[in-house]
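Readers of this paper often ask what the protein records in our data store actually look like. An entry from our holdings is shown next, in its original layout:
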Amino acid sequence: MSNNQISYSFCESYEDKAVKTSIEKILSSFSDLNEKLKSKKLNILIKPNLLAPRHPDKAVTTHPAVLKAVIEYLKQFDCNITIADSPAGSYSLKVLDKLYNVCEIDKIASGCNLNYDLSDVVVEFPEGKVLKKSLIIKPAIEADFIINVAKLKTHTLTRLTCATKNLFGLMPGVLKYRQHLAMPDIKIFSQMIIDINKYFEGKVFHIVDGIIGMEGEGPSGGEPKFAGALFGGWNPQSLDVLACNIMGMSPDTVPTLIGYKNLENIKLIKFDEIRTYKFNLPPERYKSLPDYIPEFVQNILTEIIVAKPVINRKTCKKCNICVKSCPAEIISMDEKGAYIKSYKTCIKCYCCQEACPHKSIHLSKPLIERVYKIIRKIKTKKS
């Protein structure tokens, strides 16, 4: 298996012909992938990023033009194709219907199935370092092969959401929120995501939609950012390293990539010169503190270095989505809108900010960040 290969193509728009050409270049460059696809009649699951029902122009979800190109490529093989994902929050037939409609997935699903199977399977993770057992949506377990079509985005908790984190969506519905509560330490949470990827290794090929990515307070509250990038490969962490280079982000600041190989160790098949962009990046929001530090000191340090979700009650639409998405159950609603009762039990998972469809929740700047900004201004004036 060409495990360390990444194939990259620059694509300047979501115009069907341009996307199709780039996807064909990428997928046809992996001979082992094509051998696998034609070896027998496969049940293939296409797993996009369908975080929430948002229009493709918002850059929150995988663009339908990319999915359409992947589907058309797969049709040359004798296979059955299903599109499936479990969005953030509620996982129901009504939610899936809205998701497929708003994200315009139903417009490109000709010749394949849209998943409406809500069942899940208990899966053992024998090689998992922190995840030993979990529910996984049934379509992923029943599939012979998975094409993971991720979106290039910043993330306020994990800093990057791309190929590796996209498989987190194979956990059903609100279970994802519960995982944040069960694993509030970012290192443990990130290892859990790596454990999921390890389980599906060899069964998944990854593609990244980075034509229009997201910068700022992603994965849903940021702003669209052009990068013109389409790339694919077997190893999700290798793809994420390339994603970091495109976005101007150090891989060492992404918890799922710490200690991972650099771009120089990856075999790059470049159909075009790789273009890099200066994305507006979220700060390193959360640093795990050593256990030997006393708890009261950890609490003080956490207040200094960790951002808090802040709700703008003036723009709050009282939709209750943040209330339902909060694993720690610290958000309440009154006639003025949503509010956080107490930050003492806030686990800083930012699920509320991620789930809010109105961009009414933002992250505060930690004290240490504000102090650093002041010092930097003083130094700039002196120089």
